[in-house]
Design goal:
mainly beta; 22 strands; 48% strand
Length: 198
């Protein structure tokens, strides 16, 4: 889907997108509000924007008060990755790489459960990886490594709770201005030595 402006706009309902490529849009590739979207095997790539949208930055995937499920999706090479306002985000087996913006994943009073995901090689104005401004972030079997940001490279926390289990996070790139960290079992801080993710 390459619509030029908005790729997909969702209001209400529980739509399912499967094996869809959404690219080269000048606004969010997917914008959803007050809904429960599911994306399976989708690619959001090369979506750009020229200015911030109402209330904050525009990303390839913008979620406003949604309960969202992502599975085996790739979000790569966009002006911004994922922005979630309230609601929940459950992502399994996803790659978030080579995105810009304020961070690759921004959570504003939202809860996110990232399992078997890789967040790498993103360049952000605040944090290359993840920003948590209220809510909960749970990392399970997830890699957050090799990102680059002005304030922090991997994870920047203003408020909320971060729980990490069996995940590989570069510790020197994590910065807490507030919030709480709960470290589970099997935490790593080791160069993953992977090839460039595609």
């Amino acid at each position: 889907i390459s619509a030029g402006q908005w790729g997909v706009a969702i209001t209400g309902g529980a739509p399912r997108l499967e094996n869809v490529t959404i690219q080269d849009n000048e606004a969010p590739g997917v914008y959803a509000q007050v809904s429960s979207p599911t994306l399976v095997g989708c690619v959001l790539e090369s979506n750009t924007y020229s200015a911030s949208g109402p209330g904050g930055p525009v990303s390839a995937l913008v979620l406003d008060r949604c309960q969202t499920a992502l599975s085996n999706c790739r979000i790569q090479g966009n002006a911004g990755g994922i922005t979630a306002y309230s609601g929940t985000l459950d992502a399994d087996g996803c790659i978030v790489a080579h995105n810009g913006g304020d961070a690759s994943i921004l959570l504003y009073d939202a809860s996110a459960d990232l399992e078997r995901c890789t967040i790498t090689r993103n360049h952000g104005d605040w944090s290359g990886g993840i920003i948590l401004q209220g809510g909960d972030l749970h990392l399970n079997h997830t890699i957050v490594w090799g990102n680059c940001g002005y304030d922090s490279d991997e994870i920047l926390v203003w408020a909320g709770t971060v729980t990490t289990e069996c995940s590989d996070v570069r510790e020197v790139g994590v910065l807490f201005f507030g919030g709480t960290r709960v470290t589970g079992s099997g935490m790593l801080d080791h160069e993953p030595e992977f090839c460039d993710p595609k």
